[in-house]
Q: What sequence folds into this?
């Protein structure tokens, strides 16, 4: 009998291709979503650059092209705790993949309402799922999408291990007391704060209830399409380029497509971790296929393929498109330059050979930006969220698209 | 002009005497409460042993005996974010003391509804206050009541410092990398989990918004009355003895008063930290009078007077009352025996000379238990919350009261 996986947030940027990937692998997939991502895109006037279909059209098309059924349940896991429990009691999933947190750092810093929404949605939603698993006595493996960003980016050059850090406490008598602790977080936004708080919940439920929990500390996801979303235009994945939900790379591509200089905040010396969307879905499947043993700890896996400095990314895109680069003030409170070394031994041990962000592999994303640039609303590109004491000075330049691949 | 202090949860066991103490010191006190503690006591059929008055009667009496006004605002800070902001905008308090979290570990472990309530109330409530202070640009000093319990009780014999721990990370080349980290928590209940999560919020708002935050990591509070609550019967403080909200010491006193053996869970070798209610209110006032500088860290103070093993407490009460001691299975997942050493240098540095739990000082609490034993519902004494894999085996013995002080 095939295994059942609940994908919370299965209509979103990572959730949708993950749902298709798991369905293609033979899992019974049930998507749970309240369509918050679509609603927020409307609220911000920042729709996906790609013309995404309704969930019904997506699922009907998937059935046509693959022969597989995916169920959809519309549900707010943060607010409808009892409905969520009824669903879990009926489906009794082997695994739950949780993409249903508000995932944009700038959005979480916009104002008090968005701060409150992010805390409420992310903490209550995540806790409701954990609590329902305990209440129903399920043996479900809970897989959560976390972020490398919880650690901040002011490291001391040491490699970031996978979740737990070995430290030594030196006693007053000079004796060495070794301890293994959750790697201390240094969140730079309310969004990152909620992901830090999640870790404590996972640690608690793993230890107290011996729940099987995997937290995938993901890098910044780049790319748009996967093997499955390419199969039909109605399966196309979303592409966000606005100041809240767009990643730095997508922003560069859109700016290039619109004939605008690539705007680099600060010196561009910030080093970040990256992973391609195709590898995100592969990693989630690997995590599901290899659940951790029940034990005292949450299993934390760094879901990262490579690290790059932001200015190197800008240079890569400039080379590819002919765009100029412009350096602006940084609206975030963060280190101007940082190194970043990340252990990703678990995924390598499971056989992942990651896709790397080289010129030729960026081509697909460049192509998406070019293909749909007429749909773009370039007013949405600047980051408008304010970190304390800082103000975004970037203003959009509404010029005609003018780049071609070269 | 006198300073204004908002006391969130100012109708509760610690909040009420704190409000009176601050009012007596000349602060303008505004109590904010949604009376959740009174509602939960009704829900559990476990009213205060002492006959507490309505908030209106309390405040009218206080006005009569002291001449001071205390305002009361009925408000749910977790759910009425906008109302809370309006209140803060109007009052612009110099300090906020936050007692408005659900504070019983057993209650937080009863079932899924109480787990969800505890997470929702404690996290959203605390975050709403922090966020409103930022939104309004206030210079308010935020004082939160935390607990020593977040660290668990499985230490390695080293003294628990005040919040931050110096550790050494040893690099691959053998180099020593010293770091100062938030002392890692090991919460044993959902209640303790929320207090651990609070710390991350405090750390974030201190660092990101340079908010002045003090987190008082309190020991178990004993005693009932303070200088002010003794002034009139209508000012009397609450006394809880039920399995959810009663502390171990109050439970012993009630059992003795009812002619029941004192029930010790496990070996009674659990060591816990204690503080008298009179010192709680003094410590809060000291914290308000000595705000921290705005900086990168939350100021964490261990609000602890002394530590005792549970079986030593039982022997103290047995000596005082003639009661027997009975050893039962422990419903909690915790170490059978533990040492506990706690640094409390900040409060000592501020001049606190704590009241210690010696025979003569227990007398007042014994007196309360005896005076009101006829009001007791002894069915509520056993802990009914289940930690995983454990079940409380204690059953209440409904005998007549039969002890006298000796």
A:
């Amino acid at each position: 009998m095939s295994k059942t996986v609940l994908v919370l947030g299965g209509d979103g940027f990572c959730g949708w291709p993950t749902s298709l990937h798991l369905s293609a692998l033979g899992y019974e997939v049930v998507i749970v979503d309240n369509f918050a991502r679509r609603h927020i895109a409307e609220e911000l006037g920042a729709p996906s650059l790609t013309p995404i279909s309704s969930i019904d059209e997506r699922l009907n098309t998937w059935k046509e092209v693959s022969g597989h059924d995916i169920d959809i349940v519309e549900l707010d896991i943060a607010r409808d705790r009892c409905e969520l429990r009824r669903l879990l009691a009926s489906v009794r999933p082997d695994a739950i993949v949780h993409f249903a947190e508000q995932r944009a750092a700038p959005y979480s810093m916009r104002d008090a309402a968005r701060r409150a929404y992010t805390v409420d949605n992310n903490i209550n939603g995540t806790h409701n799922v954990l609590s329902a698993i305990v209440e129903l006595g399920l043996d479900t493996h809970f897989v959560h999408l976390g972020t490398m960003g919880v650690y901040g980016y002011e490291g001391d050059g040491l490699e970031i291990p996978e979740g737990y850090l070995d430290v030594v406490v030196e006693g007053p008598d000079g004796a060495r007391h070794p301890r293994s602790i959750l790697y201390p977080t240094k969140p730079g936004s309310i969004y990152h704060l909620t992901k830090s708080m999640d870790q404590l919940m996972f640690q608690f439920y793993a230890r107290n209830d011996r729940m099987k929990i995997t937290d995938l500390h993901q890098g910044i996801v780049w790319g748009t399409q996967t093997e499955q979303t390419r199969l039909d235009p109605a399966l196309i994945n979303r592409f966000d380029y606005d100041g809240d939900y767009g990643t730095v790379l997508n922003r560069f591509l859109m700016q290039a497509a619109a004939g605008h200089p690539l705007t680099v905040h600060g010196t561009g010396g910030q080093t970040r971790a990256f992973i391609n969307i195709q590898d995100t879905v592969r990693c989630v499947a690997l995590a599901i296929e290899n659940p951790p043993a029940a034990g005292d700890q949450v299993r934390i896996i760094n879901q990262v393929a490579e690290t790059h400095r932001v200015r190197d990314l800008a240079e890569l895109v400039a080379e590819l498109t002919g765009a100029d680069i412009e350096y602006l003030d940084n609206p975030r409170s963060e280190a101007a330059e940082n190194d970043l070394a990340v252990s990703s031994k678990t995924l390598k041990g499971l056989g992942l050979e990651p896709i790397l962000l080289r010129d030729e592999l960026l081509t697909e994303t460049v192509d998406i930006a070019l293909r749909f640039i007429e749909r773009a609303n370039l007013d949405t590109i600047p980051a408008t969220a304010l970190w304390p004491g800082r103000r975004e000075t970037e203003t959009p330049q509404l010029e005609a698209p003018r780049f071609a691949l070269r």
About this structure: Residues 108 and 117 of chain B are 8 Å apart (CA to CA).
